[in-house]
Design goal:
The complex is a heterodimer of chains A (358) and B (142). Chain A is built from 10 helices and 9 strands. With 358 residues, chain A is an alpha/beta fold. Chain B is an alpha+beta fold and 142 residues long. The chains are: A alpha/beta (358), B alpha+beta (142). The interface between A and B is medium-sized, with 39 and 28 residues.
Chain lengths: 358, 142
């Protein structure tokens, strides 16, 4: 009996020693924690099995299925997006120090934890992005030069104003999050193409017909009719340069007919994606993140013009964030964490570093 | 011991059989698609169809035609209902607004089985035919 007990104890010791060991090594290896990264998955339990680290599992899941052309291109794309994400996190980890503001930094209207991310000093100064606009419509003059300039102005305003004066009086815990991204947009050229295509869809057909101009250094925006109720769509950094850019529904431009989405905020939202931002709810349930520390977790989009507070996942949603799905007039902020994530792309080794030289 | 095993196997066998005779009055099918600029919601039972074509609108309710219901039932028989929450979205275009967010839900005998969110226009292949039937039924209402 004694012998058995002894061997059991030693076995237990052995196991605990083992697990301690493995913990240490993983901590050493993971200076950049990528375990929560997702590109093409929805449910939390599959994050690991579908991550780049175990691409094999992922490939075998789908190779037997005849899906679409895009899916067969995913393995390469997934790796590129992983690399972009890795660079972003390495940069933020090295420079950013999130702090829990608590009572010291404004606090909150309630007992919710207020994570305050500080803007990272990246020495890039104002980032200037020149923009090419491609208008593709049956009558390309339907979108006027004044509308285009107005759209550029909206982008400049949204990426350079914290708009804290617009926050509801109760949202004091969002004040320290609202940011000035310090990214400027200038119109580099407008191209008009008369094309009778009634709806271009979301499969990049309009980009194939009218290819982007120097996408390495310029943001390309296609303005056309998309169809299916889609207001615009983007491509994350790391994707194919032949399709790099943003597509907007023509009527979403300022003064267009797509009310309540006609103040030019669709462009702001899509450029957010183009600069590596995810939807603020993380495109999943409460535990799926948008990879930004100072945005609250949520389990779905908000629509319309929500009243404050709108609570999901035990925290107040930042429904006024550009990366939510609310009306143009009801979204007016990015956070410091989103700013850092976007600007990381322009730092040395980043996916859009060539643009910082503009 | 053996006796218990035999009873157990009978119980599981019976469960298996229950799938064959679907309790038609206890089924409700629901499909929704939502993006910033678009919304639709379709609910179908044996009795009627409820269709909402814009966010905040009141549903349009029509009678579910016998032939439509039998088509749906036929398609439904090929689907493993209990596995619906485990289905995987074959594409993720909704992450960058290239597709509306879609959900499919079936309420059967008081229990709800809901898919994870997938791209509108590209459902998991296991429910693709059923979703197609539901959408075409709703289009006839519009």
């Amino acid at each position: 009996m004694k012998k058995l007990l002894l061997s059991m104890v030693s076995l237990a010791l052995f196991f605990s020693a083992c697990s301690d060991n493995s913990k240490e090594t993983t901590q050493q290896e993971q200076q950049v924690d990528m375990t929560d990264f997702y590109v093409y998955t929805d449910s939390q339990e599959n994050l690991i099995s579908k991550s780049v680290n175990s691409k094999k599992t992922y490939t075998t899941c789908y190779t037997m299925e005849v899906l679409n052309k895009q899916l067969s291109e995913i393995p390469g794309l997934e790796k590129k997006m992983y690399d972009v994400e890795y660079h972003t996190r390495a940069f933020i980890n090295a420079k950013g120090k999130p702090s829990n503001a608590g009572g010291g930094n404004g606090g909150g209207s309630n007992s919710e934890e207020d994570i305050d991310v500080l803007p990272i000093e990246d020495n890039l100064g104002t980032i200037n992005i020149p923009v090419y606009i491609h208008i593709v419509l049956p009558n390309a003059n339907d979108v006027t030069n004044a509308q285009i300039q107005s759209q550029i102005n909206v982008l400049n305003s949204d990426f350079n104003s914290a708009n804290t004066n617009q926050l509801p009086s109760g949202a004091s815990n969002f004040i320290n999050d609202a940011t000035d991204s310090d990214i400027n947009f200038t119109l580099a050229g407008t191209y008009r193409y008369n094309n009778s295509t009634a709806s271009w869809g979301t499969n990049n057909a309009v980009k194939a017909a009218y290819p982007p101009i120097t996408p390495q250094t310029h943001l390309n925006i296609w303005v056309c009719n998309i169809g299916g109720g889609i207001l615009g769509y983007a491509q994350f950094p790391g994707g194919n340069s032949a399709t790099d850019g943003v597509v907007l529904l023509y009527s979403s431009l300022p003064g267009g007919s797509a009310a309540p989405y006609n103040l030019g905020r669709t462009a702001t939202h899509e450029v957010g994606h183009y600069l590596n931002l995810r939807h603020i709810w993380g495109d999943g349930r409460c535990n799926q993140d948008d990879f930004v520390l100072d945005t609250p977790s949520s389990d779905g989009a908000n629509y319309g013009c929500p009243s404050y507070p709108t609570v999901n996942c035990k925290s107040t949603d930042m429904t006024m964030n550009y990366m939510d799905y609310t009306n143009d007039s009801c979204m007016y902020m990015f956070t410091d964490g989103q700013r850092n994530r976007m600007r990381a792309l322009f730092t040395s080794g980043g996916a859009r570093a060539a643009m910082a030289a503009n | 011991m053996k006796f218990i095993l035999i009873i157990l196997s009978f119980l599981t066998l019976n469960n298996g059989c229950a799938q064959e005779n679907i309790d038609q009055d206890a089924i409700s099918l629901e499909y929704s698609a939502s993006s910033r600029g678009t919304f639709k919601n379709i609910k179908i039972t044996k009795k009627n169809i409820s269709y909402i074509s814009a966010r905040g609108n009141e549903p349009t309710i029509t009678v579910c035609k016998k032939e439509d219901w039998s088509t749906l039932l036929k398609t439904l028989k090929d689907i493993d209902i209990s596995n619906i929450p485990n289905l995987k979205a074959p594409s993720e275009n909704r992450f960058f607004d290239g597709a509306a967010m879609a959900n499919f839900k079936i309420i059967y005998q008081g229990k709800t089985y809901e898919t994870p969110t997938f791209d509108h226009g590209n459902p998991p292949k296991e429910i693709a035919q059923l979703v197609k039937e539901m959408l075409s039924i709703s289009e006839n209402i519009e």
